[in-house]
């Protein structure tokens, strides 16, 4: 929620804070904070980044976030796991970042990225090359398996709901099944997904690549949870099944029969 001037000033301040800290050796701006994706920034863009700590220094350095720019304006901070942090400024601007040594990011994935600060050994640049290679591998979908999982998650979720576990069942429907459906669509219609997609999150910018289906899925999710499950089931068949021999039609029929949807879920 920042102006372009404010966003750029924070980027400059981040670089300065890392450069001035003898315990920090690298900074990578990710996603829309990177130079590559600057065209996507709007008032809701956050700063996503990796701040790289010198080997062996994490335990001493990680509790201290005073190197962040305008630290007096930070309204709250929170931890996300062992190395993840979020900081929210008094104007609503958000930092989401990994604050870690390189070894702690051995399995990290990264898409668009700009290395702003690095050491003489190019430690941070090497990390990003490896992370982007892992991201490219993660961007390969298996639509047949993802579709099978959609059906399974819907069956499990509705079963939990009917048992009285509405919150847990809702996660299966609104989170797991929905995400898998988006993955299945991206994999089934890979030629439609544009370069605007996020290789790390199939839901990001889904509306830009599949506007009609995105709208239909959004409408489905606005319904009460079991109605939402039925609507997602119907969309799964309507979008993916026609002309696709790999669609698990027998499995879909079994789910519909078990849930009493045979008359409405075709």
Give a topology summary.
Elements lengths: L3 H17 L3 E7 L16 E7 L4 H4 L12 E7 L3 E6 L4 E8 L11 E5 L5 H16 L4 H21 L2 H23 L17 H4 L1 H11 L3 H16 L8 H11 L7
Parallel strand pairs: 2-5
Antiparallel strand pairs: 1-2, 1-6, 3-4, 4-5
Helix pairs in contact: 4-5, 4-8, 4-9, 5-8, 7-8
Instruction: List low-pLDDT spans.
Output: none
Helical coverage, percent range? 40-55%
Report on the biggest sheet. 6 strands, mixed
Number of helices: 9
- What is the highest CATH level, the class of the largest domain? Alpha Beta
Fold and architecture overview:
With 266 residues, the chain is of the alpha+beta class. It folds into two domains: 4-138, Beta Polymerase, domain 2; 143-259. The chain contains nine helices and six strands, in the order H-E-E-H-E-E-E-E-H-H-H-H-H-H-H. It has helices spanning 4-20, 58-61, 123-138, 143-163, 166-188, 206-209, 211-221, 225-240, 249-259, and strands at residues 24-30, 47-53, 74-80, 84-89, 94-101, 113-117. The chain has a six-stranded mixed β-sheet with strand order 3-4-5-2-1-6, with helices on both faces. A hairpin with a 3-residue loop joins strand 3 and strand 4 (84-89). Helix 4 runs antiparallel to helix 5 (166-188), helix 4 packs antiparallel against helix 8 and helix 7 runs antiparallel to helix 8. The longest helix has 23 residues, at 166-188. The radius of gyration is 22 Å and the shape is elongated. The chain starts with a helix and ends in a 7-residue tail after the last helix.
């Amino acid at each position: 929620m920042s102006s372009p001037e404010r966003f750029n000033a924070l980027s400059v301040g981040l670089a300065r804070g890392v450069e001035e800290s003898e315990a920090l050796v690298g900074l990578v701006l990710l996603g829309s904070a990177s130079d590559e994706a600057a065209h996507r920034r709007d008032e809701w863009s956050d700063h996503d980044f990796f701040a790289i700590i010198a080997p062996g220094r994490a335990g001493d350095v990680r509790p201290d976030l005073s190197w962040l720019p305008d630290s007096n304006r930070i309204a709250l901070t929170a931890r996300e796991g062992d190395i993840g942090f979020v900081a929210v400024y008094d104007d609503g601007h958000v930092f989401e970042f990994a604050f870690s040594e390189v070894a702690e990011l051995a399995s990290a994935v990264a898409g668009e990225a700009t290395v702003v600060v690095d050491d003489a050994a190019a430690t941070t640049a090497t990390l990003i090359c490896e992370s982007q290679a892992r991201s490219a591998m993660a961007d390969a979908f298996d639509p047949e398996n993802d579709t099978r999982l959609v059906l399974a998650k819907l069956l499990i979720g509705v079963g939990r709901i009917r048992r009285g576990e509405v919150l847990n069942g809702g996660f299966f429907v609104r989170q797991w099944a929905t995400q898998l459906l988006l993955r299945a669509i991206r994999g089934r219609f890979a030629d439609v997904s544009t370069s605007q997609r996020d290789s790390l999150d199939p839901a990001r910018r889904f509306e830009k690549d599949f506007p009609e289906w995105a709208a239909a899925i959004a409408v489905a999710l606005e319904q009460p949870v079991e109605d939402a499950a039925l609507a997602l089931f119907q969309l799964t068949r309507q979008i993916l099944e026609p002309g696709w021999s790999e669609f698990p039609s027998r499995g879909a029929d079994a789910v519909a029969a078990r849930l009493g949807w045979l008359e409405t879920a075709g």
